[in-house]
Amino acid sequence: xxxxLHHPLIESLINTLRDDSIDAFVFRHTIKEITKxxxxxxxxxxPLTPKKVPTWNxxxxxxxxxxxxxxxxxxxxxxxxxxxxxxxxxxSAVSGFLGIKRDEITHKSVLYYDRVGDCTGKKVIxxxxxxxxxxxxxxxxxxxxxxxxxxxxxxxxxxxxxxINTVMKxxxxxxxxxxxxxxxxxxxxxxxxxxxxxxxxxxNTL
Length: 206
What we know:
alpha/beta; 12 strands; single chain; 206 residues
């Protein structure tokens, strides 16, 4: 399934990203803030495990998310700000990284780097800011399923309707949490109105 988050704060943050005059620092910071809101939704139904902890007035028992059972996987390099925001919040979560590059001629994605361990019994949070054709996200999900991920959530800042349909057709069991669904893809397979190249804007690359 997929779900778009409808909230004035998210709308304002997305519109900040659309502003081409902001610098890389502001772009990364805004991506991180959106990621925290998406993460909030992804963990809305997460169970809490009781744990005894020392407090100012004795040992007490409180509920905590089992962060060590969560794997945060990012698609390099545009997702790095999202990854940082997620692991800053989930300090005991495991990290994984996938390098997936889109061929600018065929528009197909190519996996060139895999640093994700066994995901058996784990909840995987896959972060990727842009879902254009959906090809890269499908490739990433395929890798995670081969590693026996228990459940997979994707956190996405911007997605096209075409990209969402591609992912949902192949992996209907994956839950996509999307900050904003944009209008369409253009003939060059770029999201419209989109943000431009998120990786380039986040790190001032050419």
